[in-house]
Here is the input.
Amino acid sequence: MLMKRILKGLSVICAVLAFWATEVEAQIPSIQEELALAEAEWSTNKPKTYEFTLKIICFCAPAPPGSEPIVFRVNNGAGSRVGSLRTRSPEDLEKYGTVEKQFAFIRAALREQPYRVEIEYDPVLGYPRRVYIDPKPYTADEEYGFAIEAFIALSQ
Here is the structure.
């Protein structure tokens, strides 16, 4: 009799915990939902002209002397480098040249179903502040991503 009561009590506790876990999980937005929300925020609030400094996150060869900081200026959706143009490869940086291209970079990375993803978006404008992608578990030095620093809205 006592064992039946204990099992019944445990069943109720398990059911409550399962329900609670489902409710908590439903409140946590998925990475895809966060991306969609950030894109909507950006679409609504993006400045006409803006500038940002790009930091590449990777285990790759150091940038050539004089090539940093990497600064982009975007005017009416067209991005261009500002300052020194010495770099690993201008084509490598093209995918980061506008916030829209950064969102496309994130979508492409997510399609590959990486092992670990960490993305931080600006709470006001929605642009990605930091993106970290770890494609595979138990593999060293293949992580990649970028960080946006010194974002400046030059005109609305």
Summary: Confidence is low (pLDDT under 50) at residues 20-27. Strands lie at 49-58, 70-75, 78-82, 116-121, 128-134, 144-155. The first strand starts at residue 49 and ends at 58.
